[in-house]
Give the backbone structure.
Amino acid sequence: MKIRAKSVSRRAFLKASATMAGGLVIGFWLPGRQRLAHAQGAPKPPANPNAFLRIAKDGSVTVMVKNLEFGQGVTTALPMLVAEELECDWSKVRAELAPAAPEYVHTGFGMQMTGGSMSVGDSWTQLRTVGAQARTMLVSAAAAQWKAKPEACRAEKGFVLGPGGKKASFGSLAEAAAKHPVPEKVSLKGPKRFRLIGKPTRRIDAAERIDAKTVFGMDMKRPNLHTALVAHPPVFGAKVASFDAAKVKAVAGVTHVVQVPNGVAVVAKSFWAAKKGRDVLEIRWDLGPGATLSSDGLRKEYGELARQPGPMARKAADPAAIKAAARTVVAEYEVPFLAHAPMEPLNCTVEFRGESAEIWCGSQFQTVDQAAAAKVLGLAPEKVKLNTLPAGGGFGRRANPASDYVIEACEIAKSVKVPVKTVWTREDDIRGGYYRPMYVHRVEAGLDAKGTIVGWNHAIVGQSIIAGTAFEPFLVKEGIDETSVEGVSDTPYDIPNLAVTLHSPKSPVTSLWWRSVGHSHTAFVMETMIDELAAAAGKDPVEYRRGLLAKHPRVLATLDLAAKKAGWGTPLPKGRARGIAVHESFGSVCAHVAEVSLDKGAVKVHRVVSAFDCGLVVNPMTVEAQVQGAVAFGLSAALHSAITLKDGKVQQSNFHDYTVLRITDMPRVEVHLVPSGADKPTGVGEPATPPIAPAVANALFALTGKRARALPLGKTQWA
Amino acid sequence: MIKFHVNGEAVEFNADPDTPLLWVLRDGLGLTGTKFGCGRAQCGACTVHVNGEAELSCSVKVADVAGKRVNTIEGLSASNAVVKAVKSAWLDKDVVQCGYCQPGQVMAAVALLAKNTSPSDAQIDEALEGNLCRCGTYPRIRDAVRAAAATLSGKR
């Protein structure tokens, strides 16, 4: 996801106050954003200024994390930013997930969100500043106490040290420090002085996870909490015509059966009662036009559209150049719908109290979800407290501009007037839409006699993720949804006369961003096509790419590092082959070299060597984990996963037929970070996903001479 | 009335005998460390020990554990050598990402190492094949199981 920031004053106003417990609280608020929240008039500080930082009397330091923690490690990386400047004792640092509140909006976009691999970059200056300000205030408090000059005192490992061996703990100083003015200006350390940033640091919340003390949304407990399951439409866009709840109400434990906009909800005292109730619910549906949809039909339709003129994301300087090509390579590619399938199925707990409401869920879009909930419940957004709980994965599914599952949970809570946790089963999740859309690409590339590219016509067909959402004004320009063409229209390859056409057919199938968004399909197409052109030109795939990257040293360096570390060009055992791919996304560059073989026709990936340039590295341990994880996530889609439609129905339902990677399929992944010398971090969570599918596909070409043009690769007969 | 033991305590259950053990643990006993991931024995998030064997509690009817000893992630004994080795290796290798599948992974690893303190790489994969992780922590899970095995077999 790439969202352009509207211009916003980044001048941060500060507010400090003593907490009830007598600790130190530092909160920021951004007047530019406040104007959005409060419409006209002078910006007002938020009614309840939340804090990024709390120092308690016992010296513990709690950092409020404004993003969702769903595996990407923000609960460690963001506190590291604070601690680097605060000079506290790292072992005393804790993290808490912030609820929805104006203080926690993205510094550029004015909404609280987790996406676009932006979390660390967004907080990079903000949280180091918080740490520096708090440290300055603690030093001032100590200096005042000792009647010393602040310049004669310094902070170290949770203590302020002063002249004559004086020493006071942060905890003992916190209350006094809160009464000191917040410094308007602080200077931040340069990278050479970093003690924590850049150091491999273990997750601070790992022990609570394996001790099962973490409360995920699914684990929410409240007095009198009911569980709701919803019978959703069997095809996209279908409506309830009528339903018969007689049998449902006979199931012990079922308390309510209510119609909601997207189906019929069965509410019960327990999950199992709700499930048994839903199993015997009889619904007559008006199926509507969605009942005729099929993946085969869409594939045909998209293939035809790809040959038609349409809105252009990029125009060739000389559209005729390709006609003079010595040879032309034409290929058509397809990728299926994909479900996110996070391990924790969707859920949302709502307590509607008439005048107010409280919600608990693992939201990637707190601001949007809070506003949507408020609308359903007929309340002002500030009357809806949205608590962010850690989520068992998400990959984009919990960042829905349509707030589907939150709205559904609120509709149910409003109707039944008891505390209720709406839970999706795995089947609901796999069949519930909001997929990475299906796409077809058609590429025509022209080469001269030496194999140099002279023109490239690229057509992309697939529904727009953004159209019809609140993001449309920012991300759709003149019919071009940027997220559909990213990775092609902005390719770093020096391709003369590149023309990119986009068709965005409408569909009742709901769609959404899926880890790496458009890059999840564009990297596959670009990188397998480039590989194909290298072969057509009779050149080595690495050398051929190098020739197209002269103007992009960062991409080139990443490509080179992966090739070097993988031993590109050195012999492999018989029956094995290597493939390479490199792709830039979310401000970072990742290259993978995949080593593959075939085992009775099945693709086996043995080893992946990755080079990654994500700018300044905050936590190398997390970065390595994210690259390994992105490889696993990308390999699931590269090898196995597909959502397909027939007669409007989703043909998959659970992990037995929506197949994802198991440990037995997991290659060894060696991660090499490019020493970039950058002074700020770029994206980490997503950029390693896009290049894995093409790296494997290119290795399969090297092994078999066959080109895969459809994902998942398991669809192709390899032997 | 179905009688069994959960984490050493006697439990009596007198509702629907077809209720999956998972939901008796989560909704009935409040033991939410055992996770719901798929409901049809595909993902391993609900792994518990029944008489010491790793079982998928979403697909075990409560009637089938009558008279048996059920252990959940909450019931792992901190003083047990295998548990200690597994948990400390999990932390040392920084395995956890989102963490939702991890109780199930830990339960599967403990069940494996309780029987075999020197598993081969293939045996590790085989023992954990039923436990999905969408974050892709598999490489570090392998490292952690190997490290725990090394501790237990005195090789480290």
Summary: Chain B has a mean pLDDT of 97. Strands of chain B lie at 2-6, 9-13, 47-50, 53-56, 69-71. Chain B touches chain A through 55 residues (CB under 8 Å).
